[in-house]
Write a structure and sequence with these properties.
alpha+beta
Length: about 375
């Protein structure tokens, strides 16, 4: 990465050049193409570079990408320069332009810049009807290709998926990509319960084999076969079953809820032990009263994670806040990160891989 920082004049020159070249205000697909082109070391720069700008490809790549992503009408060269400095700190060593540009894009996504969000949505969607992109690849695995001489039949994981869904399953890909976008960007919902209050893991009155979390999610039951992640981010608690103490819950403790068959469920005080998930499990059924009571004197912070995979490493695999060039593998790109998050950690689609991704969890949740 560069040891020099482009000046304000350089940023303004880049932005003005992009504006005059009509390269701003593009759709997500077009903007993604521009960024992909920018990441190609053999590509021509989209605008001329001012002679006063640092003669460093990495520095220019960041500066141009920042200018591409900054919302039109809100351009501020000084703020862009400060953001450049922060990104420059994250990108240590001699990273390729692909990672440089991807990191700029992710930084914009985290800040909810509209152009960066368009890049995220386009990266997730790809071309669904031609099975390209993370969502498209997952849909191909589920739906498959038409079976010869069998009209309306496909050879995917669920050959009659369209018939069961009631329409061409691909038509719902856009809405699914929107849900995945939200979960990647907003990893959890935060609650601030009062001292002495509690969370009740109760069985739903309408669907008695599903669990609702009261009082936070009374209208969002957890279906059979689904899991949820919770964390007591601050404060302390006590897990109770039928009014009897089961376990002390310290600050930072993860809780994984799993809803099983036959009106059975379990709540695990989870932590990692090697490659496995360890921790005590509280088994309960529909006749039990299970509560997490907040015991500290000060208000607690309780997190409910938006991704419904219920995996222990969800915070590292299924949220953009985990993007960190200093800890990721050298070959990791935004495209590969999103593909792994959506459809599982392997290029080859198999059931034991697919169930580790966000898309399986979304569908398993009935969305």
């Amino acid at each position: 990465m560069p040891h020099c920082v482009p000046g304000v004049r350089c940023f303004n020159t880049l932005y003005d050049g992009l504006l005059k070249a009509n390269l701003l205000n593009r759709s997500g697909h077009e903007l993604l193409g521009l960024l992909d082109n920018l990441a190609d070391v053999d590509a021509n720069w989209p605008v001329p570079i001012d002679d006063d700008c640092p003669n460093d490809e990495g520095a220019i790549a960041i500066a141009i990408a920042l200018a591409l992503l900054w919302p039109p009408g809100m351009w501020n060269a000084s703020e862009a320069q400060e953001e450049f400095k922060a990104i420059d700190v994250d990108l240590t060593g001699a990273e390729p332009l692909r990672q440089t540009v991807d990191h700029v894009a992710v930084s914009g996504m985290r800040r909810r810049w509209a152009p960066a969000i368009r890049v995220l949505e386009s990266s997730l969607l790809g071309d669904i009807f031609n099975y390209r992109g993370p969502v498209g690849a997952a849909i191909r695995y589920l739906r498959g290709y038409p079976v010869e001489d069998q009209e309306g039949q496909f050879d995917g994981l669920i050959p009659d998926l369209d018939a069961r869904w009631g329409c061409d399953f691909r038509e719902d890909g856009n809405s699914h990509a929107g849900i995945l976008t939200n979960r990647l960007l907003q990893p959890f919902v935060v609650f601030h319960p009062d001292p002495g209050s509690d969370v009740k893991f109760a069985w739903d009155d309408v669907r008695p084999d599903e669990v609702v979390v009261m009082p936070f999610f009374p209208k969002k039951p957890v279906p059979v076969g689904s899991r949820r992640n919770y964390r007591l981010a601050s404060g302390t608690g006590e897990l109770l079953k039928n009014g009897i103490h089961f376990a002390f819950v310290p600050s930072g403790q993860r809780l994984i809820l799993r809803v099983l068959d036959d009106c059975q469920a379990e709540l695990q005080l989870a932590y990692r032990r090697g490659s496995n998930v360890a921790g005590r499990k509280l088994m309960f059924q529909s006749t039990d009263d299970v509560r997490l009571r907040f015991t500290g004197d000060d208000p607690s912070i309780f997190e409910a994670w938006n991704c419904t995979c219920g995996a222990l490493d969800c915070d590292q695999k299924h949220r953009l806040s985990a993007w960190n060039p200093r800890t990721m593998n050298d070959g990791t790109t935004l495209a590969s990160f999103l593909a792994t998050a959506v459809k599982g950690p392997d290029r080859t689609m198999r059931m034991n891989v697919f169930i580790q991704g966000m898309y399986y969890a979304l569908l398993c949740n009935g969305e």
